[in-house]
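INFO batch 0412 | record 1 of 1 | parsing
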Amino acid sequence: MKLVPILVYHSVSEEPSRLMRSFTVTPQTFRSQLALVAESGASTVAIGEFLRLREAGMLPDRPAVITFDDGFADFADRALPALEERGLASTLYVTTGFLDGRAEHPAQARPPDRMLHWSQLRELVARGVEIGAHSHTHPHLDTLSTSAARVEIDRCKALLEDELERHIETFAYPHGYSSPAVRRLVRDAGYHSACAVGNTFSSTDDDRFALARLTVRNSTTLDEISAWLVGVGAPPRRTGENWRTRIWRLLRRARAAATGSAGSDFR
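INFO prediction complete | emitting tokens
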């Protein structure tokens, strides 16, 4: 079993909102972290390529994956230029209801930070970024009814495929929350893979619909990044769900039922 660090970023900014502060790194910090990736000898691949190589038994000796969630404007302004300078691959998971440029059915609860415009997505693809889906309004999918969760999953895919005129193969669960039922909906929608969080290493044994990722926060140190890149400093993903995950899901579902609205960390 080979351990693989799949890093998840959100925003690269010097002036994040209070809501996103803990999930934001400064441009200088981001560049320092990318320098570590380059100097470590790791080979970065996007999620789709990672899985293709994994299934063919052709993963490089030191694979690493860099992902971004949500679709903040600073991905294009700050993150992508730094990635391109180092020749590093990336996957961007887009919350379609957060993007600017379309008036129909925007997300009611979203971060106050500036988001990407729909018109920028084609350019990102042309520059080599893999685009994935991250739901339409970013709810806790495992607190929704089956029909509501299906709409979130399917609508995001349909909007992105309509805009980009290409198949969207990968999904990331908002807030990292899923369940066996949600994972089945993602599979049935035609995705080939999905990312969770877990803050553990992924591996060659990881469920392709529950790929583990390591969250990079504003408190993440360069030493932690260095350790992750050589396969230490975090545990491997456990098989199946533990009891804490199931209890936390029940609590969030109860809260959603009591408030009459889906769970969300953006309210």
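INFO post-check: Residues 83 and 183 are 30 Å apart (CA to CA).
INFO record closed
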